[in-house]
Amino acid sequence: MNKPQILFVEDDTAVGNLIATTLETQNYQFHRAKTGAGALMDALSYRPDVMLLDLGLPDMDGIEIIKKIRSWSNLPIIVVSARGEDADKVVALDAGADDYLTKPFSVEELLARIRVALRRVRYDSQKTSAEAALYENGDLKIDYAGGRACCRGAEMKLTPMEYKLLCLLAKNTGKVLTHNYIISEIWGVSAGEAVAEIPSLRVFMATLRKKLELDPSHPQYIQTHVGVGYRMIRQRQEDES
């Protein structure tokens, strides 16, 4: 099996050296860019499996890089930035980033985020058109054609809104979805109107969790990113290390 290819974009020497050492110890193949222009060229040339992206680059804001890449690629993008406000995370995720890690970060957390992104890549590459009608994630199964979901062998009694939320999260497994994105997709309202619907979203998400999770206070499937949104967690397969 080919080693995963990681492209990381970081102009700070110390942080760049830390990331390079971390990736090297895990036997990842990697390439480093220090500018936005270099990142875009490398994304085209190297076709990496995952991109780690700093937002504060000397020639271009990282948000613009995300938007440009999203115009032609679904490459998983993990933002690694010193911008730690919820508003900054929302902007990056709404632009198309898959995940957001705030500096300073632990090496263990960085590697965990990369593993999540790589599992998503493997899952997407293994799907066939026949399988696309059926979603499986651990004990959760969704029959899109039949419009029903089962968990732990029993059919879930979901309201139409709960089912829509579950499907949206499932189709973006491993990716953080912002409140604005979820509300615009489910309710069909503009970003400006989305804020008013966040309390309703939280209520529906709470009822969905009660039906999906064994212990809603310690969720196994739906992860909350406080002030940002939600993520469907891909369950580890038995054959994964």
TrEMBL record:
Query: Keyword set for this entry?
Result: Cytoplasm, DNA-binding, Phosphoprotein, Transcription, Transcription regulation, Two-component regulatory system
InterPro entries named in the record = CheY-like_superfamily, OmpR/PhoB-type_DNA-bd, Sig_transdc_resp-reg_C-effctor, Sig_transdc_resp-reg_receiver, WalR-like, WH-like_DNA-bd_sf
Every OmpR/PhoB-type domain range? 132-234
Q: Where in the cell is it found?
A: Cytoplasm
A Pfam family per the record:
Response_reg
Give the GO terms filed under biological process for this record: positive regulation of DNA-templated transcription
Domain Response regulatory: from-to ranges: 5-118
UniProt keyword Protein biosynthesis present: no
- Residues the record lists as 4-aspartylphosphate modifications: D54
User: What SUPFAM superfamilies does its record include?
Assistant: C-terminal effector domain of the bipartite response regulators, CheY-like
Gene Ontology CC entries for this record: cytosol; protein-DNA complex
> Per its UniProt record, what PROSITE patterns does this chain match?
OMPR_PHOB, RESPONSE_REGULATORY
Primary location group: cytoplasm
UniProt DNA-binding region: 132-234
Q: Name a GO molecular-function annotation.
A: identical protein binding
Q: What job does this protein perform?
A: May play the central regulatory role in sporulation. It may be an element of the effector pathway responsible for the activation of sporulation genes in response to nutritional stress. Spo0A may act in concert with spo0H (a sigma factor) to control the expression of some genes that are critical to the sporulation process.
This protein is called: Stage 0 sporulation protein A homolog
From which source organism is this entry? Evtepia gabavorous
